[in-house]
Design brief:
The complex is a heterodimer of chains A (649) and B (175). Helices cover 63% and strands 11% of the residues of chain A. Chain A is of the alpha+beta class and 649 residues long.
Amino acid sequence: MIAEAGLACLWLAAALSLLQLLAGGFSLAGKGAQLAPVIRPVAILQGLLVTAAFVLLIWLFLRTDLSVKLVAMNSHSAKPFLYKFAGTWGNHEGSMLLWVTIMGLSGSCIALLEKRLRSDTMIATLAAQAFVSIGFYAFLLFSSNPFERLPSPAPEGQGLNPLLQDPGLAFHPPTLYIGYVGLSVAFSFAVGALITRNVGPVFARAMRPWVLGAWIFLTLGITAGSYWAYYELGWGGWWFWDPVENASLMPWLAATALLHSVSVLATRGALRTWTIMLAVVAFSMSMVGTFLVRSGILTSVHAFAVDPERGSFILALLAIYIGGSLVLFAVRASTVREGTKFNYFSREGALVMNNVLLTAILGIVLIGTLYPLLTEAMGTKVSVGPPYFNPVGAIFALPMLLVMAAGPILRWRGDSGRRLVNLLALPALATAVTLLLVIIFGGSIGILPLLGLVLAVGLAIASVIPLFGRNLLRTPLSIWGMVIAHLGIAVALFGMASESAFNQEVLVASNVGDTHEVGPYTLTLNAIDPVAGPNWTALEANITAQVTGSNASEIITPQSRNFTSPTMQTSEAALLTRWNGQLYAVLGEENDDGRWQLRLWWKPFVPFIWYGGLLIGLGGLLALIGRTARDIKRRRYDMQDSDMQGEAA
Amino acid sequence: MTSWKLWLPFALFLAFFGLVASGLLSPSDQTIESKMIGKPLPAFDLPPAVTDRPALSAADFATGEPKLLNIFASWCVPCIAEAPHLQALADAGATINGVAIRDKPEDIAAFLARNGNPYTKIGADNLSSVQLEIGSSGVPETFVVDGKGVITYQHIGDIRASDVPLLLEKLEEAQ
């Protein structure tokens, strides 16, 4: 009965979203003003129902109800509790249900909390949100029903892909999904504002917390995903320019641009059309990402159930939502009132540069991701990887760093070049000193890692300059957020550059008792032992890691695991994290002569990549808290504001 | 901003849409033509898998009548999903011989009791040797074999409702 109840909740939620759309549409068309008051409660109820459906699916997974096809295909009675739970969304149907659940809940939140917007814009926004939801409900109900029963229960489940049996799975996909779907809210706001011709600072302030929130989750999701790939795949890399990774990076780039342009709109009333465009693009990138991942149209390291029928379905949704909103944009954008003009040498000017560069990087990633598809249409197969993305991306990323250093220091409306030069002298000096040090002591390293290292140091210093001369206790949280997020970029960049400049790798065939050196460590293979876990057995290497020339030593234990149900071999890397880097050890196969393959890396400062990611997310969180607190204070003013002024053209 | 510029994003999207739609609709290299098509079945002689169905050997296919050879297992979830459609094929007059991969007699009996038994004969392939020789990479798979024991068609994966007419047609062609 649980599965049937879940399906019923899903159908009801879908019906309510249809009602939400129709009520919104009619009341906007002026043919049903009496329908307007039902829209908010319907949106709230819809969110609750779809959440109930998701909770019921979790329940089915926790009970391992093998009469449900999805559970039988993706779970196993012997699986640990956490992975039964996380396995709910470790598959196509479950993850799409998670998607609509988050979407429904966001709709509920807007309906409950947003009080500033003009009521017609509010109605249009909720109607747009319902319109997007309906497509995904249809997708679930007609092509990916998570509650489908088997003709007769399976005797045992097929298990979850062992690579996914990791605590990271419990965290990484939902985080990214909240980010993706959060952008759908920004999209709905943009569509609502276009329909009602109400693009202005109040609209920007209403949209901003959603953009910030989505962006924080995307940041954390990408950071977590990168770290998960790093330690779970056992390849020692942290970013592979894989289509699925790009699928999460592109919305992040668009959201980052949107985040900055929405600030200009909220503060200065400028960049109106551009902000609307970015809001549409950001959610489009989420959908394009989902499409690329789910349709299997591009080859990826990520194993997802590939189904051309589902691909066509998502493509149809893409056509309706993205195509539709872009047509609406083309028709309506020329009627959006031009915002305030501004001086280019100013905070606004720097933010525009930031937007141009971020958009260029987005374009480069998109082209690189789609290029294999283009050449395949012409008959040749190619693979696009780091040789394209790194240098071409750097062409725009390096100037971006300079804008990032200068932008936060510049004043709104206009500033003097002399003031900028004075303030940037210190970071410039630090950059020059680092450059000298790296050239003298760093040995021969590539030009990109070199630039990355020195600019990271300069940017780190430049990013805290906005705090100079301020009373730190009375500095607004949003300023702290900006400073910490920019510092996070510098920290992450330092980790990336250091990893690619100074990475040391050793691949050896080792007898028990042999000693190897990598980086500052001397490693001794003591033994290879069999060990067993709940649903796997493994060979475990026992290795003593000793800092060369000292007595302090530690034992690390990389494993080569064999999972039962489904059978699969994975390697569990052993990591030893120190303040100045990470030791990374992988146990490989046994050679014919009885020696064991070991891959050992010393990666200086590599954890900085993820510390940086966390700092960026923290910065976003502080900004969100600061902005929200301030918005609550000025809410009364905004409400009067939006009642009085007709912001439509 | 002039109005034609505002249409640029839409034009770009149309280009993207055309590209992926053409990529999606022409999955040129996704169908794997079996190397065994047109070749005779490899010689095999399997013991019976259950007590109430006879054993299976390659000779059972050289009787003049086209038959289906279905590779299945009681531990295979897609096999449960395909069971009703196999039954539909049997009801439509197809003779289906089964090869049970790495299975136990009591598990197979339980599987057939639950999901129906469309098979005329079932051989037990406990080492997957027939499965490998016949060029099957997974479970379930279904082969159309003509009356002389030559493989004419291979269906990879579970049989869905939409595949039933196709398989019947392939059987007809193999006459």
